Amino acid sequence: MSNLDSNPILLKHGQNNYTISDIFHGANNIFKNLKQKQIDFKNEILVAMDNSYELLCLIICLWYSEIPYTVIDNKTPNNRITEMLQITGSSTIICDNSFADVIQKFEDFNVTILVLDALFETVGSKITDNNLELVDHYKYFRTTDSKVYTIFTSGTSGIPKAVEINLQNLNSYLYGIMSRVVLEKNLKFLWHSTLVTDFGYTTLLLSLSTGGCLILPDEKYDLLNSSKFLNLIKTEQIDFLKITPSYFQALYMGNQVTECSYLPRVVLMFGGEELSSKILSYLNSIENRGFCIFNHYGPTETTIGVIAGEISDFSKNNKVPIGIPLNGVGTLLLNQYGYSVPPGALGYLHIFGPQVGKYTSHSESFYQKDLGDDKIITIYNTGDLVRQNDNGEFIFYGRNDNQTKIRGYRVELEEINKVIEHEDEVIDCKTILYQNNFYSFIKIAKQISDLDSYVNEWNKVYDYSYKNNKEASLFNISGWKSSYTHEVLPKQQMLNWRNAIIQKVLNNKNVDSILEIGCGFGLFAFELINYVKKYVGTDFSSEIIDHNQKLLQSKNIGVK
CA-to-CA distance for 513 and 9, rounded, in angstroms? Predict the structure, then answer.
């Protein structure tokens, strides 16, 4: 771009309009200041900023000058930022004044901290549209594998996984999504998602590539304020909106919005989470709806999204398809043994092609396949269970691991465990997801001043419980009740269950001694002692141990 005579508005931020000339002049100033400060363009830069005019100028500068970057926001935890610096090898942090705490946080690190406001100062001669040094420097990217940015996803070890996205990845995505979602020029795109995740890149890239205008809420805007969000869409007459299903449900369905003027005029795109038929049923009830609805799917490792499709079926009971692969995207549906599944069957989705990024460290999810003739492709195993319907559309059926998504953010339950276990008093943690809420169960290293009295209190509880249910029987099933009906379980059913477990133990012919922790009324003990040389039963209650020994003696059974 050597001439900016055509000067449309690229960004509207509150009451301020920024033209393409404004954006490139700002980007050029940043570029010249970075050169003057002798910043190494080969090293990755950590960008600590929220969406703004300044951030857009910086991103344009980094794209044109081929400087890779990673974006964080002011909600990124300190330890995670430290890990990002170590993983990316970043030696420079660029932030704005709202990240003053970041400046203080990293003054002790061996990094250069730059405040973006100072990078906008004019360096050298007066800039015109025809002497932008940044544009002259840009001779297209030298190679298609030039890294553009690094993005971090949740990791099971508690350490975030870094995914590198290069120019070829982005070009392939942009070609694929623009072929699928055909847009006119001069549309308005609501840019409400940050670049910390790749969710916001769809809006950014489509707007810049189609000559659109990014609408950015003003500084006082609160995403959680539903009335402001909805009024912004209505007053600005937003054409394109990408949103997660859970946020949409809370924003629109939670507020019982029925007027179509509060919805985008051209495209409503869902992504980041599974789209439910409940939302489609709601949208189908909106009168005078003139916009198209798209579903967009894709793991971060495969550059923003690899599957998309327009929704035409609003059936209430059907699972919503995620679409068909974008142009250039290759897919495989394999079973757990790595073999192709029959048409229409469930399989794990594997993705290959020019959109597949790469981890900075080894991952079993990425693997290579030799196609012969020295052609090797990289394939990414998403871990997602899908199937194809008769129309060739993919339908998502979940996962078989502990990975989930909350408001579009990918979360590993193991990572939550690891973070909580970093606390000094926590020695173990287990987290579950139930009805979109996380519940963490922790075990604390409790300091007890009087351990003996603490143990005695619990002994009293167990002794009391057992004392009321003692009986002269070797098959005492007192207290065994159904968790569904709360009724006492039938004796024959308990007997069959007990015998099955005992048989499973005895199938191991090497068993000659058994330790049972929590033997209770000896449901297993009184049978197993007939088959082993030594049996040791333990329990919290001395009351039940004495009872079991006396019972064995009364039945003339030798104690082992």
Answer: 81
Residue that has been written with the tokens 């599974």 in this structure: 274
Nearest CA to 171 among 126, 137, 141? 141
Cα separation, 23 vs 52, whole angstroms? 11
pLDDT for 105 equals: 66
C-alpha–C-alpha distance, residues 193 and 207, integer Å:
14
3-state SS assignment for residue 334: strand
Please state at what angle helix 20-36 crosses helix 53-65, rounded to 10 degrees.
Answer: 60
Between CA 27 and CA 134 the distance in angstroms is 8
State pLDDT tens for residues 98-109. Answer: 776 666 666 666
**Cβ–Cβ under 8 Å, residues 177 and 198:** no
Contact 221, 228 (CB under 8 A): yes
CB atoms within 10 A of CB 471: 12
For the domain made up of 1-8+19-140, give the CATH fold.
Answer: Rossmann fold (3.40.50)
Measured between alpha carbons, how far is 521 from 357 in angstroms, rounded to an integer?
59
pLDDT band per the 50, 70, 90 thresholds, residue 450: low
Q: Are 144 and 37 within 8 A, CB to CB?
A: no
Mean pLDDT in the chain?
Answer: 82
The ranges assigned to domains in the chain are 1-8+19-140, 411-444, 470-554
HSE toward the beta carbon, residue 175, CA cutoff 13 A: 11
Q: What token pair was written down for 83?
A: 């890990």
Coil, helix or strand for 443? strand
Distance CA 354, CA 175 (A): 11
Tokens encoding 205: 């890239």
